[in-house]
Amino acid sequence: CMTGSLRQSLESAGQAHVLQFWPELCEEERDVFLEELAQLDLKGLKDHCEAAAKAAASPPDSLDQHIEPIPPEFIGSVKKSGRDSLEEWERRGLLEISENCVGVLLLAGGQGTRLGVQYPKGMYNVGLPSGKTLYQIQAERIRKIQELADSKHGSKCTVPWYIMTSEFTLGPTETFFKENNYFGLEPTNIIMFEQRMIPAVTFDGKVILKDKGKIAMAPDGNGGLYQALVDNKVLEDMKKRGVKYLHVYCVDNILVKMADPVFIGFCVSKGADCGAKVVEKAYPTEPVGVVCRVRGVSQVVEYSEVQPQTAELRGPGGELVYSAGNICNHCFTRSFLQDVAEKYKDQLKQHVALKKVPFVDAQGVQVKPSKSNGIKMEKFVFDVFPFSRNFVAFEVVREDEFSPLKNADGSVTDNPTTARNSLLAQHCRWATSAGATLLDEYGNPLPLPSVSADDSPPAQCEISPLVSYFGEVRTVC
User: Fold this and answer.
1) Phi, psi of 473, rounded to the nearest 5 degrees
2) Cα(91)–Cα(21) distance, rounded to whole angstroms?
3) Are 22 and 200 contacting, i.e. CB atoms less than 8 angstroms apart?
4) Burial class of residue 269 (count of CB atoms within 10 Å of its CB; 0-12, 13-18, 19+)
5) DSSP assignment, residue 448?
6) How many distinct helices (H) and strands (E) make up the chain?
7) Residue range 271-296, pLDDT digits in tens
């Protein structure tokens, strides 16, 4: 009876083919497959597949006629702001942290496939002298920022760490944290939850079978966050804890400043419900999205959505007009996230990703395609910007705050070597700024560290986040 109604639902969705190997499955395989199928939104499946096929066949919109930079009054900057402003924003941010009003949320649903590993990216060790993983570095930065807020305000604060995982990363992440004693954090203040998985489909809108009794599923992109907040009652947890501001970031940035008090203080002082950290684009065609306005509304425009001549436009001082590179580093108010969850999450734009999706052919033989054969529909975390009532951008220095780990060594950029070099060079700069002189093995002074991730740092100088959050010097009496 269950399979009869299920077959009918699949047929009406145009997906009856997923049961073609049903007679060949044993009882246990059937039970597992039925459980997977039961979790699918079968009513929405037809729309999903048709939308995916249509989107893949449509060229991206060209937005050149409709875009303009974010007005200067809505942009803050580490480089261009005065010391008084920066100190005031930091004071405000540390105050909010000390009052338990700030949480951090990590987007960690993806595996390290492009890195050449099958485990979560956060478990990756880039080869630092300490051997620390991304997860450990981030956990220790949370511990340090709590300590800094407490020492300034005499508080005993908590910055809860919300971690969005996927079906692929939840189990390994939970085990890894447990094995490492939660890196010194209180386990009850680490809240892991799962985002939804959605089926990959062919170019003609058919769900892909990964195996005879398994559909090819993928996380619904980091914009799946907003549905996951609802599914897992995360907003209720934030409310219970008194969290008003949430710093959201991506797992792969080795330089991320967890609960950055300057960024949070800037957003709070501007009354912003939504803020984005940006870095100046390295060159016009750098493949990062740009934070700008489209038809007067703040959003991120992907590099594929504008013509090269628009990307290359320069202002009177020679600077790129569209230079605000998005780095997946955001500050949201909880009330804004509540609005998104209640009113806007179903209006988020769907993005098409063409992928090589392993499948079983009509004879039941497993095939690993050599070219893209499937469509994965993704939502992006920044797609909520247009719903903001008061959006701001905050420009930071790339060498201090952005060095993503995306590719394996051997790739030109964003690999373990560039990530490691970025962090070690930063720590060399911190040490020299604090008055240290770096010496070689013969006692000769070393040159000042370069700011380029392409260059090896002059010394293997690593500073634990438990010693310094962002280069501040501890006074020892």
Assistant:
1) -100, 130
2) 63
3) no
4) middle
5) P
6) 13, 19
7) 999 999 999 999 998 989 999 999 99
- Nearest Cα neighbor of 392 from 285, 266, 304 is 266
Q: What 3-state class would DSSP assign to 347?
A: helix
Q: Are 236 and 342 in contact (CB under 8 A)?
A: no
Q: Where are the domains of the chain?
A: 43-434
At position 119, the amino acid (one-letter code) is: Y
Confidence at residue 46, expressed as pLDDT on a 0 to 100 scale: 80
Quick one: how far is CA 134 from the chain centroid?
Answer: 13
- For the record, the structure tokens of 36 come out as 């997977």
Q: Which CATH code for domain 43-434?
A: 3.90.550.10
Query: What local confidence, expressed as pLDDT, does residue 448 receive?
Result: 77
Task: Tokens for 135, please give them.
Answer: 């997860």
Q: Angle at the Cα of 201 (from 17 to 120), degrees rounded to 5?
A: 120
Distance CA 207, CA 216 (A): 8
Assign 3-state DSSP to the chain and report helix, strand, coil percentages, each to 5.
40, 20, 40
Pairwise CA distance, residues 60 & 306, whole Å: 9
Task: Taking each helix axis as running N to C, give the angle between helix 2-12 and helix 42-57, from 0 to 180 degrees, rounded to the nearest 10.
Answer: 30
Q: What residue ranges of the chain have pLDDT lower than 50?
A: 1, 476-477
Identify the pLDDT of residue 426.
Answer: 95
Q: What pLDDT was estimated at residue 1?
A: 46
